[in-house]
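Deliverable D4.2, example record:
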Amino acid sequence: MSLPAPSPAAIFAPFAGQRIAVVGLGRAGLPSARRLMGWGAEILCWDDGAAARNAAEAAGLPVGDPCAAAGFRFDALLLSPGIPHTLPKPHPAAARAQAAGVPVLCDAELLFRAVRASGSHARFLGVTGTNGKSTTTALLHHLLLRAGRVAEVGGNLGPAALGLPLLSDDGAYVLEMSSYMLERTDALHFDAAILLNLSPDHLDRHGGMEGYAAAKAHIFGHQGADDLAVIGMDDAETAAFAQGRAARVAPISGLAPQPGGVWAEGRTLRDASGPIADLDAAPALPGSHNAQNAAAAAAVALFLGLSRTEIATGLASFPGLPHRQERVGTRGGIAFVNDSKATNADSAARALASYGRVVWIGGGVPKAGGIGSLAPLFPRIAEAVLIGQSAEDFAATLTAHGVPVQVAGTLAAAVPAARDAARRQGVGTVLLSPACASFDQFTGFDARGDAFRALVAAMPEDV
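Output generated by the structure prediction step:
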């Protein structure tokens, strides 16, 4: 349950006497600043964009450049995850903070400190990985709620961590943790921590794969023998993290048995004690990658005392997440699947592997490496319809492998072209799984997915 509101005589102020600079006033920064001020901190807010600064002023928050004074006289810098504090170039506020020995933190760290300052021993459950972390975070939260547990979800997914309510001892926070957030933790201790997988991503921010892996490893910081480390075993980079952990390790896999852990045999989720759930009864969790996501959530659920029946029921009722293999409609017997969240080739591979033959809509702002790694899955692409900056390069790669290609340019042109291609090829699925960022044509993957959904909705039912 949530903690009751404190009486006026006992206002909860865990940050009283602390000066905290909040830089970056977007989705997480603005609510975090409000909460910190409400919890007694003396704050100063800043954003490099005038519109965000104006919004903060309108909300009654103090706004000013923390670098304006001669010294950086703060106890902490809460820096938006998207703003670098080291590579490729530190923000001026981060550079000043580090020169002054002031810690650069994320909001999940400050939530943890506040919860512990309240006297609560609520559980903290962390989820990270290059791909699948949003689905796994939402799935674990869903399992807990369906079993009648008190749980809040947030972090990199959903509400900012500092926007979540205080929970008492029986509660649990399920937090999606990006590498950007994890590298800014200090005391944060996860009772159960999940590392799903690792593949190259954000390398400019972390100085290479070694730095990226080191940031992800922070999720296991401060764990001890009473804690759980859930580690994906389906790629060698991640499996290596199973060695040397202080916590009990639960290996997970969507492909192969894992003694002491949870895995999928075909579409049966199981552990050493036997079957847990039939994943064919969980339509929002197709493919081996989602089997691994289900294994991760189930491992933590078992650790928290949920029954096998509760887990199976929760998996079957999980609705899935928008933009993650979301079936947005069927037209003329052709299913349209929105996987706009697939912003790199590794994520797109997981979607392509979940279907037999598809018409694939891909493209946008390319990531390092392009789509060459998808070559083993090209036989599943009956025809490709390409959009965005990467279209010509992707077309060359696909054509060299014998895949029929159209360059549509825009998503609005690609959707009807993909429908016509599906009819022509006798294929039942059109899959938007772009393997690219969206910023050439959209404000984010969510806007791209929303546009796809709207385009399908506007299509006549009988086409």
